[in-house]
Amino acid sequence: MHRRSCHRDVAADQRGLLTVRQAAATDLTTEGVRHEVATGRLERLGLRVLRVEGSAPDSEQRALAAALDCGGLLSHVSAAAWWGLPGFLLEPLEVCTARTPRASATPLARVHRIRSLTETHGVVLRGVPVVRPELLVLQLCASVHPDRAERSLDRLGSERVLSGPSTRRRLDEVAASGVRGVRTLRQLLDDRGPSYVPPASGLEARFAQILREAGLAPMERQVDLGDAARWCGRVDFADPPTPVGHRALIEIQSERYHTALVDLRSDHERLHRLRAGGFVVGTVDDFQVWHARAEVLAEVRRVRSEVRRLDRHRL
C-alpha cells in the first residue's frame, strides 16, 4: 500500500502552509486535522488554509496564505510589490479569483472577482501564485493614478518581463469582458507604438558599462530582428551586421523572472530561429552581469570571434 505523504513535508514546500484539502490528502484524516488544530500543532489562518506550528509568520507567508485560502492569485497593488515595482506595498493584501458562483472568499485579503480570469493569467513567482505582468498593468490602470500605471508599464518593460505585443494580446483577450482599465492601457500602448523601446534596465546599463570600461565596441540595445515577413524577435544587445550578413547578439537572462515566465521550449525554438538566420547568439545571466565581469567579456568576445570566423568562411 502506498504510504501517503506527511503533511509537514507538503507545508515545507509552501512556507509552512497547507490547505485543508491538502492536509486531508496526506497522513491526516479529517479528525486528525481537528486534533492538530486543537493541540496547537496546526493553526487555522483562514477558511481553508493552515499553518504548521513553528513556521515563521511574515508578510511573504501571509501573501501565500491569502492566495491559497481563496484559490486565487496575488493581484493589484500587492502583485506590483511582489514583482518588485518601487513605491508599492505588499500589504494590505489583494488577491483575485475567477468570478463564478462558487468563488471563494478569504478574510486574509481583499478579493477581486474577475469574470475572464483563467490559469493563463497567472504564474508562480518565488513560490506565490501572482498575476502575470500584462494583467497587473491593466489592474493598475484601473486602480492607481495613470502616471503610476505608466511608470509600472515602462519598468516591467525594462525588466523584459513584458512587451508591447504581449500586453496588447492580453488586452485583446479581456477587452470585451468589462474589465476596468482597458481604455487607459490601450492609450498607453498606442502612445508608445509598435517599435517602442522601454528605458534601459539596471542590467542593460551595467552590461553597457562593462563593455565601455573594457574598451570594447558598444552594442545596440533592444534590437528588432527580421522584417515584416519574418520577425525573429527583439534581442537585448546586437552588433551591426557584417557585410556578409552575420551578426553577434547577446541576451541577458534575469533569473528573478526567467523561469516563471518563459516557456523553455519556446525559448529554445526562438534561439534556434535566430541561429538559423545567421545570428551568433550569446547569453549571460544577471549574476554574471553584476558579479562576474570577466565571464561577460569572455562571452562577448566569443560571439564576435565566431562572427569573424563565419565571415572568413563565407569569403
Descriptors:
single chain; 315 residues; Endonuclease, Chain A; three-stranded antiparallel beta sheet
Model description:
It is a single chain. The chain starts with 6 loop residues before the first helix and ends with a helix. The chain has 14 helices and twelve strands. The protein has helices at residues 7-12, 20-24, 30-38, 59-70, 76-82, 133-143, 146-158, 164-174, 182-192, 202-213, 258-261, 264-276, 286-291, 293-314, and strands at 17-19, 42-44, 49-52, 73-74, 94-98, 110-114, 122-125, 128-131, 220-226, 231-238, 247-253, 279-285. The longest helix has 22 residues, at 293-314. Helix 5 packs across helix 6. It has three domains: 7-54; 60-192, no CATH class; 202-314, Endonuclease, Chain A, CATH 3.40.960. It is of the alpha+beta class and 315 residues long.
Mean pLDDT: 86
> Which shape, going by the Cα principal axes?
elongated
How do the strands of the widest beta sheet line up side by side? 9-10-11-12
The residue fraction in helices comes out at 40-55%
Question: What percent of residues are in strands?
Answer: 15-25%
Helix and strand content put the structural class at: alpha+beta
Number of strands: 12
Query: Could you give the order of the helices and strands?
Result: HEHHEEHEHEEEEHHHHHEEEHHEHH
Ranges with pLDDT <50 over ≥5 residues? none
- Tally the helices: what do you get? 14
Characterize the biggest β-sheet.
4 strands, mixed
Tally of individual domains: 3
